[in-house]
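Supplementary Text 2. Reproducibility record for the structural model of the 218-residue chain.

All settings were left at their defaults, and a single model was retained for analysis rather than an ensemble. We include the record here because the model underlies the residue-level annotations in Supplementary Table 4.
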Amino acid sequence: MKQNNLQDMFIGIAGLIGAGKTTLATALGKHLNLPVYFEPVQDNEYLADFYRDIRTYAFATQIYLLNRRFQQHQEIIWRGGGGVQDRTIYEDAVFAKTLVNQGLMDERDYRTYLQLFRNMSNFMCRPNVIVYLDLSVDSSMQRIRQRNRDVELGITREYLEGLRNEYETFIADISRTVPVIRVCWEEYRTVEEMAEVIEHEYFNKSFLRTAEWAPTRS
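Retained model, structure tokens:
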């Protein structure tokens, strides 16, 4: 695998809560010598309030996350070269739409959010490729329980099912303009495997494909 083919790429890692995006982004960044832009979790001053009272804090949390990820995009532009982003700015709309669908965000707030996002999008750089870690709701819930973050203990199956449905729409839409590699993430893969499959699938030039591996020989 020619690592230098990927060292100037902007790679976005997408997927459900608990999928393992941060772990993969960290490993890819180290393996490819690329800077990693992490999802704002530890210093997110809205997150605990959001999960405690989603309806009250939905709009403020979405605006906070949109602003932080926009800052990351600007940093990528200013620095030049590539990078790995733990959840892309485009996925924020997945969460916002899910909140609206479940009656947890006001339609007026959602329209304001979308207008702001569209204005910001004129000043953003698109990823070269998005890697979508495809995971079932059951596995997402299991991994959320395993990592045992206090703020996430109230996440419901209904919320995750809504998210997963919106992710399917998102992937179909974004793949028209940004190459997307869908990877079954029920089983973790090594960073070497992922770097190889990103290079192979990306340079095939198609815009939506599912990565597959041959059965492991004993």
